[in-house]
Design goal:
The complex is a heterodimer of chains A (86) and B (570). Chain A is mainly alpha-helical and 86 residues long. Chain A has helices at residues 3-36, 38-41, 51-81; strands spanning 45-46, 49-50. Chain B has a two-stranded antiparallel sheet with strand order 1-2. Classes of the chains: A mainly alpha (86), B mainly alpha (570).
Chain lengths: 86, 570
C-alpha cells in the first residue's frame, strides 16, 4: 500500500469513528430519551416540562444542531491533521 | 388599517422582492441553472435549504397537527430535524465531493449503469410531483382566505410567480429568492409566537414560555393546565399521546431517513464551493430550521389552550369575529346537537359539537389571540413564502431530472449547452402547469401521498447512496435490486393498508389496522422497507461480480475532502 493510500485509510478510519460516536448520541437523545425511555424520564420535571416530553419536542432538536457543529469542528481539525484542508 | 389592506401591502412587497431578485440573478449557463454556479456561501445555502425544506406543511399544518396530537406529534419534530444529522454526517460532504448536478447523476455513475440512473429518475419524479401538488394547494388556501380571491385564481397567481423566477433564474434565482423567503417566513412565524407567549406566560421566548407558569397569577404551569383540560374533555393527556411506542419509533425513523434521501434537499449541497462548506451549511440549515421547529410545539400548546378556553361551553352568539369568518370557509363547523346554544367541545363524537380543521391553528392563531392586524397579514405573507420556496426547489429537481438525466444523459448526449438550458426551462414550465392542475383539482389522496414520498425516499435513495459511499464493494446488481424491492414493498404496503386496494377499498382501511406488520402504520413502514433494501443489496452483492476498479477508485476519492473542484456536468 502506498504512503498516500495509507494516509487516506487512516483518515477514513478516524472519520468513521467520529460518525459512530456522534450517531450514538443522536440515537440516544431522540429514540432513547424521547421514545423508548420517555415514560421513565417523564417522572422527572424540568420546570413545567416532563423530561421525556421535553426531549421529544425540544431537547433532541437542540442536541441535533450541536452535533452537526461539533462534527464540523472535528472534521476541520482532522482535515488539517492529514493535510486535506483547503 | 384593516387586515385586508395590510395583507395586500405585505404580500405585494414580498412578491416584488422575489421578482426583483429573479431578474437580478438570471441563469446564463446550465451550471448556474442546476447548481447556482457552485459558489454559494454556507450561510446563504443554509438559509436557502431551510426555506426549501420548510414547506406549507411545516409552516401552516405542523403546529396544528401537534396541537391535536400532543406527544404523538413529536414524530414530525424529531423526524424532520434529525434527518439533517444523517444528511450532514453521511451524505452531504461526499456528494459534494463527487460534484455532479443531480442525485440520479450520483446513482448512475457510482453504479455504472443506465438502469440504476433510470430507477433514480423515476423515484425523483414521483417524490417531487406529489410534494409540489401539496404546495400549490397551500398557496390556494392562503390566497382564498386572506386576499379573498377564488382558490383557483390563487393557485394560478402562485404558478405565475414561481414560473417566473424558477424558469428565468434556475437554481441561482431560486437560491437567492429562498434566502429572502426564509427571512420572511421565520419573521412571520416568530412574531405571533412571541406575542402569544408573552400574553399567556409573561415570557417572550416561546420555547421557554411553553414550560412556564401562566400569567394569570394562579402559579399553574401551562402544560399542566393543558393536560388537565385535555383529560377533563375526554381527550388523551396532551403529554402522553395514543400511538404505540413501536409505531412512534418507526415513523420517526422513516421521516428522518426520508428527509436525508429527498432529492430537492440533497441537491442544495451541490451549490457550495468546498466539502467543508457543505458540512457547515448543513449545520446552518438545521439551526435555522430548529428556530421554527422548537417554536412550533410551543405554538401548538398556546393555540390548543386558547381554543379550549375560548370556545368550550361558551354561547355560540358570543363568539368573536374570526369564528364566523372561518366558518364561511368550512374549516370550522359547529352543530348545536343538544340545542342549548352553547358550544360543547369534547372527545366523545356523539356529544361533540365543534369540528376544527387542523390547518387553521396557525393561520387563525393571531386572530384567536387578538393580535394587531399587521401580524395577521404577516402570517399570510409567511405562508406564501414557505409554499413558494418549496415549490420552486421541487420544480428544479423535476426539470433537472428531465433535461439533464433523461435528455442529456440518455436520449440525446450531443445536445448543446444552450439546448439543454432551454430543455430545462421547458421542463420546468410543464411541471408548473401539471402542479397547478393538481393544486386546483386535488386528488383526494394528496395528503396520503406526501407521507408516501418520505417512505419512498427512505426505501430507495437512502440505502443506495449510503452504501455507495461507505461500502466500496457495493455493486450495481445489489443497489438496483435493493432500490426496486425497497420501493415495491413500500408501495405494496401503502396500497394495502392506506388505500385498502386488495380488500375492497377505503372502507376496509380501518379494519386492517389490526393486521399491520409488527404494528407499524403505513407512515412508519418506510423504515422497514429501508432495512429490507439494505439487506437485499448486501445479499445480492455477495453473489454477483465486484464493481470495476475505476468505480472503486471513485469511492476512495469521494472520501477525501480536498480537491472537490467545481460541480461539472461531464
Amino acid at each position: 500500500m502506498s504512503e498516500k493510500q495509507k494516509k487516506a485509510t487512516a483518515y477514513w478510519k478516524e472519520n468513521v469513528r467520529y460518525l459512530f460516536i456522534l450517531l450514538a448520541i443522536w440515537f440516544i437523545v431522540s429514540y432513547g430519551a424521547g421514545i423508548l425511555f420517555k415514560d421513565a424520564l417523564d417522572t422527572i420535571r424540568l420546570g413545567g416540562f416532563k423530561l421525556g416530553f421535553w426531549f421529544a419536542q425540544q431537547g433532541s432538536i437542540y442536541i441535533f444542531v450541536a452535533l452537526i457543529f461539533v462534527y464540523v469542528r472535528l472534521m476541520n481539525k482532522l482535515d488539517k491533521k492529514y493535510g486535506y484542508d483547503e | 388599517m384593516s387586515v385586508q389592506t395590510w395583507t395586500y401591502i405585505l404580500v405585494g412587497i414580498t412578491f416584488s422582492l422575489y421578482i426583483g431578485i429573479a431578474i437580478w440573478s438570471r441563469a446564463g449557463s446550465t451550471k448556474e441553472f442546476y447548481v447556482a454556479g457552485g459558489g454559494v456561501s454556507p450561510l446563504a445555502n443554509g438559509m436557502a435549504t431551510a426555506a426549501d425544506w420548510m414547506s406549507a406543511a411545516s409552516f401552516i399544518s405542523m403546529a396544528g397537527i401537534i396541537s391535536f396530537a400532543g406527544y404523538d406529534g413529536s414524530v414530525y419534530l424529531m423526524g424532520w430535524t434529525g434527518g439533517y444529522v444523517l444528511l450532514a454526517l453521511l451524505l452531504a460532504p461526499y456528494l459534494r465531493k463527487f460534484g455532479k448536478f443531480t442525485v440520479p447523476d450520483f446513482i448512475g455513475d457510482r453504479y455504472y449503469s443506465k438502469t440504476a440512473r433510470m430507477v433514480a429518475v423515476f423515484c425523483a419524479l414521483i417524490v417531487s410531483f406529489t410534494y409540489v401538488a401539496g404546495q400549490m394547494q397551500g398557496v390556494g388556501l392562503v390566497f382564498s382566505r386572506f386576499l379573498e380571491v377564488d382558490m383557483d385564481t390563487g393557485v394560478v397567481i402562485g404558478m405565475v410567480i414561481v414560473l417566473f423566477y424558477a424558469v428565468l433564474g434556475g437554481m441561482k434565482g431560486i437560491t437567492y429568492t429562498q434566502v429572502a423567503q426564509y427571512c420572511v417566513l421565520i419573521f412571520a412565524f416568530m412574531v405571533p409566537a412571541i406575542f402569544i407567549s408573552f400574553q399567556m406566560t409573561g415570557n417572550p421566548i416561546p420555547q421557554l414560555g411553553m414550560g412556564a407558569t401562566l400569567n394569570d397569577g394562579s402559579g399553574v404551569f401551562l402544560m399542566d393546565k393543558l393536560d388537565g383540560l385535555s383529560t377533563e374533555l375526554g381527550f388523551d393527556e396532551y403529554t402522553s399521546g395514543s400511538k404505540s411506542m413501536i409505531d412512534v419509533f418507526a415513523i420517526t425513523l422513516a421521516l428522518m431517513v426520508g428527509t436525508a434521501g429527498l432529492p430537492h434537499v440533497i441537491v442544495r449541497f451541490f451549490t457550495v464551493k468546498r466539502v467543508k462548506d457543505a458540512r457547515k451549511s448543513a449545520g446552518w440549515a438545521l439551526l435555522l430550521i430548529a428556530i421554527l421547529y422548537t417554536a412550533a410545539p410551543a405554538v401548538s400548546v398556546f393555540a390548543r389552550t386558547n381554543l379550549i378556553d375560548t370556545v368550550n361551553n361558551k354561547p355560540y352568539a358570543d363568539m368573536p369575529e374570526w369564528f364566523s369568518k372561518w366558518e364561511i370557509t368550512g374549516l370550522i363547523k359547529f352543530d348545536d346537537k343538544n340545542g342549548d346554544g352553547k358550544i360543547q367541545y369534547v372527545a366523545d363524537k356523539n356529544i361533540n359539537e365543534l369540528d376544527v380543521n387542523r390547518d387553521i391553528m396557525v393561520l387563525a392563531n393571531p386572530e384567536i389571540a387578538d393580535l394587531p392586524a399587521w401580524v395577521i397579514a404577516l402570517v399570510a405573507a409567511g405562508s406564501l413564502a414557505a409554499a413558494l420556496s418549496t415549490a420552486a426547489g421541487l420544480l428544479l429537481v423535476i426539470s433537472a431530472s428531465v433535461s439533464h438525466d433523461l435528455i442529456k444523459k440518455v436520449i440525446n448526449p450531443n445536445i448543446s449547452e444552450k439546448g439543454e438550458l432551454w430543455a430545462a426551462r421547458g421542463a420546468a414550465t410543464v411541471a408548473v402547469v401539471i402542479a397547478g392542475y393538481f393544486g386546483i383539482n386535488p386528488p383526494g389522496f394528496v395528503a396520503a401521498v406526501v407521507a408516501l414520498a418520505f417512505g419512498l425516499a427512505a426505501a430507495s435513495f437512502f440505502p443506495a447512496i449510503v452504501l455507495g459511499i461507505f461500502y466500496k464493494k457495493m455493486n450495481k446488481e445489489g443497489a438496483i435490486a435493493g432500490m426496486v424491492i425497497g420501493i415495491s414493498l413500500m408501495l405494496f404496503y401503502m396500497l394495502k393498508f392506506k388505500f385498502g386496494i386488495f380488500d375492497g377499498g377505503k372502507e376496509a382501511v380501518e379494519g386492517l389496522k389490526a393486521s399491520w406488520w409488527f404494528g407499524i402504520s403505513p407512515e412508519g413502514f418506510g423504515s422497514v422497507a429501508m432495512l429490507v433494501n439494505f439487506i437485499v443489496s448486501i445479499v445480492i452483492m455477495k453473489f454477483t461480480p465486484e464493481p470495476p476498479e475505476n468505480v472503486q477508485r471513485i469511492v476512495e476519492d469521494i472520501r477525501i475532502p480536498s480537491g472537490a473542484g467545481e460541480a461539472t456536468g461531464h
